[in-house]
Amino acid sequence: MTPGPIEPADDVGARRAHNDAMDAANADPHRLAPGLLPTPFTAEEIRAASGSGKTIRLLVEEPGGTSFERVNRFVDCDAEGATLEQWRLAPGGEVDGEVSRGRVSWRELQEHAAFPEATTIVRDEELELPFGRAACRRYELAGDGGAPAAVFWFALELPGMPARYEVLVPGGVQRTTIRSVVAEH
Fold first, then answer.
1. Residue 11 falls within a domain, yes or no?
2. CA distances (Å), 66 to each of 19, 59, 78, 150, 173, in order?
């Protein structure tokens, strides 16, 4: 076998740096790819916290002062993922509108919290939530001009979706907060 051409040192160094970054990303299940911050939870931690299912009640506060409740329910949980059911609640507590259903993998749910290092500030802070005070990991994503475009707080005791998040929408900021989580065993 004839050896291939010798690569310039710069190419070898660049390839090694890339491979080292890939190895580091693959070694830490919280880090999904180079250039992304570590996620607060792994797919396995989200799966374990979901058990055989769980129901999450959320309060959604709109910029104009109106609010409504939404429900996320995980059913048919297995090693790969779950069926996610979502609906809005009417003021009396009954389902308001259609219930959406779709299969999600635990990895897809983890990917929702994979934010770019270059435009995200992360820090730990305490947050008062409807279910009590919680230690949270806060991710602030920069928007145009560096102003925050979205902020996500993940309660470290609740692997899964953010306990609270605020996103810019037309007219201001929409805030979504977990009101309760009920796990099925």
1. yes
2. 50, 11, 37, 20, 12
